Amino acid sequence: MAAPAINKPQTAPAVQSLTMGKALNLGLRAAMEADPKVLVMGEDVGKLGGVFRITDGLQKDFGEHRVLDTPLAESGIIGAAVGLAVRGFRPVCEIQFDGFVFPGFDQIVSQVAKLHTRTQGRVKVPMVIRIPFGGGIGAVEHHSESPESYFAHTAGLKVVACSNAVDAYWMIQQAIRCDDPVLFFEPKRYYHSAAMKAEIDPAATPDPLFASRVVRTGTTATLVAYGPSVKVAMDAATAAEEDGHSLEVIDLRTLSPLDLGPVFESVRKTGRMVVVSESPSESSIGSELAARVQQECFYSLEAPVLRVHGFDVPYPPAKLEEHFLPDLDRVLDAVDRSLAW
Amino acid sequence: MSSAEQWTHPEPREGPAATAAAPTAEQVIAGLRATSEGGPELVQLLTPEGERVENPEFDRYVADITDEDLRGLYRDMVLVRRADRESNALQRQGQLGIWVPLLGQEAAQVGAGRALRPTDMVFPSYREHGVAWCRGIKPEELLGIFRGTDNGTWDSVAHRFHPYTIVIGNQVLNAAGYAMGQRFEGKVGDDDGEATMCFFGDGATSQGDVHEGFVWAAVYDAPLVFFCQNNQWAISEPTERQSRLPLYQRARGYGFPGIRVDGNDVLASLAVSRWALDECRHGNGPVLIEAFTYRMDAHTTTDDPTRYRLSDELEAWKLKDPIERVRVHLVRHGMADQDYLDSVQADADKMAAELREYCFNMPDPPVRQMFDNVYAEPSPVLDAQRDEFLAYLSAFGGEH
Ligand SMILES: Cc1ncc(C[n+]2csc(CCOP(=O)(O)OP(=O)(O)O)c2C)c(N)n1
Ligand SMILES: [Mg+2]
Questions:
Q1: Secretion signal: which residues (chain B) (predicted)?
Q2: CB-ligand 1 contact for B172 (6 Å cutoff)
């Protein structure tokens, strides 16, 4: 049975300027209105509206049977969502913070990822696991991590990351419609950023979910980023312009499957590439990008692919996170090194 | 009641009967609300009005408590609360990134903390500032976690007080393993036996790790006291989101005793903890204690409880304040006069001023700290990454 089409505007008929958090909220709302089988479940998502208020008001409007304040157990949230999906529901699970997905890791890699294969395709697992990720919020341990590579590494899972309010609004609806399980990463530090408010037109036609996008064109080098790092890359591109460097920026949007067409095209043009990501670099999305680009664009490359990542250490205490996180200077330094190669 | 035997076969009392046809959610909630006073099984030695009530089973565990000791418990609670309020204020003033208040849980924690011996081990969650105090950890040493300079700097081996654990439930299994080790090394069996106590909340009782911890400790007869502070809330979710039956009754299903104590009664918490530790020392562990208490402040400084609970509830619990009842008791029985109370207050003020001063002067950590201690053995790969980054930073000048 085909998933219902994204329903046309009901709650957000007019073009509105929204924060990413509010855009996600309206996207969830639209998905719930479109399909009565969509459930929202997680810790504190009901009455409180989630610790980030992304599900604010949903329980009030859709009821406790559609917005579930679950027991405090991530394995339970994911595992029960699998069962609900088998029964025909479309659960949208909220993991409160990136570092708390791990009690649910077993269910994700063993059941969520494999059930479709194990049943010769008879059983679909159309669930979404929303994970606020990344740092920059001055939090204590386990609240600022970037665990996306674990999931991109796992066959059977789709993994996406939004970087702006417009994508957030559409991508969450598309992920919910997807018949495969989708890990949905949200850059928490920008949830409520007024500076990143964007106009959202519910009547617009969104880009496909599993597509990368060139968000700034340039000729000197290619910056590839996703989630919170897109803003860092864009800021770096703006700064580089003053130095006469024209940087192309690609927002990956989808981490698994990777949509590398735009990346290859860009690198064939610029000959240089720098990956920007908050996750540690070892065996990361950046590693995969470097491998694929050197394979496909070998003769176009003027320099090796460079990676500006978090370091290969546990996420540090808040006072050190500015040094852990890729910033404009580190990105520009990598661009310089690439150019000097 | 102090023998494990009786607790593994408790007589069912009123409350939601596990064997009846499944009750509706409304019935369950109504039932639990009805027992929000703690129910008839609550062990209480000091009423909220400060009256000492006799308890034939548990009195003997505090029979040795002198007036001096009781004043000590009072002083502990006043200072612990004061450090908590000061830290909360420091967060409000931007000196800390976040604070996790313990307000309202002083008696549960000081009672448990003072029941422990130096040779016992403790596995805390993240709200156990009162237990930390009893383990000789200064309030200053907690600040780094919340200021974002470190993940806790106390020597967890020397203090036998494990680092705070934020991932809900993780520490419970770790505690089970530690306690298994105490047993494997022959440290249990008599009055001098060792024991371990682990702390977690009502919400945590839903986590697989906690259930597995129950199983492991039971199967290996580990000398482990599970100390669950049921403060009625897991952020915005009330305890009935986690359980149909009172939490202490869960123990029965795992084959060990469970008991519910008035978590706002420091004397009862001390007595019950001593009993439970005693059981463990003698090889009759594990034991589950549910300390029935209340989180009087927000979950953390980022939380807004007005979104999910009524202020009436807080007002009702204020009448059961853990410190006030001891103060009343001390004064009424001539164990403390105004001078004494004033001197405790003065101590608290002095400590708070020092805490504050310390916080303002905390240096930011050096950048290289994040590369330290990732591995016990040398890691040339990581060392190279660190050196490259430090060299990069030095181009900007300054010390790192
Ligand atoms: C595995 C995991 N999931 C979610 C969280 C976020 N979180 C922090 S505290 C908390 C509620 C804990 O409630 P409870 O166990 O009752 O302890 P309390 O905070 O009330 O002391 C939650 C959901 C976490 N820290 N770890
Ligand atoms: Mg709690």
A1: none
A2: no
The CA distance from A7 to the nearest CA of chain B, in Å, is 31
Chain B residue closest to A71 (CA)? B242
Number of other residues whose CB lies within 10 A of the CB of residue A41 = 24
- What does the DSSP assignment read for B62-96? STT--HHHHHHHHHHHHHHHHHHHHHHHHHHTTSS
- Looking at the whole model, is its pTM more than 0.90? yes
Percent of chain B with pLDDT over 90: 88
Secondary structure class of B10 (helix, strand, coil):
coil
The span from the CA of A67 to the CA of A154, in Å, is 28
Torsion of CA B330, B332, B337, B342, to 10 degrees: 60
CB-CB neighbors (< 8 A) of A72 in chain B: 168, 203-204, 206-207, 234, 237, 241-242
In a domain, A312, yes or no: yes
pLDDT of residue B40: 85
**Residue in A47, A141, A320 nearest the CB of B236:** A47
Pocket test for ligand 1, best of B145, B235, B290, B308 (most atoms within 8 A of CB): B235
Question: What would the mean pLDDT of B158-163 be, rounded to a whole number?
Answer: 98
Instruction: Judge if A330 and A250 occupy the same domain.
Output: yes
pLDDT one-digit tens code per residue, A173-217? 999 999 999 999 999 999 999 999 999 999 999 999 999 999 999
Q: How many domains does chain A have?
A: 2
- How many residues comprise chain B? 400
Which residue, of A200, A233, A253, is where some domain finishes? A200
Instruction: Please check whether residues A190 and A231 belong to one and the same domain.
Output: no
Q: Are residues A153 and A287 in the same domain?
A: no
Does A6 map to a domain?
no
CA B44 to chain centre: 18
Assign B231 a pLDDT band (cuts: 50, 70, 90): very high
Instruction: Please identify, among A177, A200, A223, the residue that sits at the C-terminal boundary of a domain.
Output: A200
Q: What is the pLDDT of residue B53?
A: 97
Q: Which domain, by its residues, includes A295?
A: 213-339
Co-location of A242 and A178 in the same domain: no
B11 pLDDT above the threshold of 50: no
Q: How far apart are CA B208 and CA B25, in angstroms?
A: 23
Return d(Cα A174, Cα A5) in angstroms, integer: 9
Residue A208 lies in a domain: no
Is A207 part of any domain? no
pLDDT for B25-57, tens place per residue?
555 554 444 445 788 899 999 999 999 999 999
Residue A10's pLDDT is 54
| B161, β-bridge pairs | B122
Counting residues of chain A whose pLDDT is more than 70, the rounded percentage is 96
CATH of the domain at A297: 3.40.50.920
Mutate to test the interface with A, among B87, B166, B245, B394 (most CBs of A within 10 A): B166
Distance CA(B14)–CA(B205), nearest Å, equals: 22
Contact indicator for B208, A73 with CB cutoff of 8 Å: yes
Based on the domain organization, do A277 and A222 belong to the same domain? yes
Residue located via tokens 């916080």: B359
CATH number at residue A106: 3.40.50.970
Q: How far apart are CA A210 and CA B36, in angstroms?
A: 51
Q: Do A233 and A174 fall into the same domain?
A: no
Whole-angstrom distance, CA of residue A248 vs CA of residue A334: 14
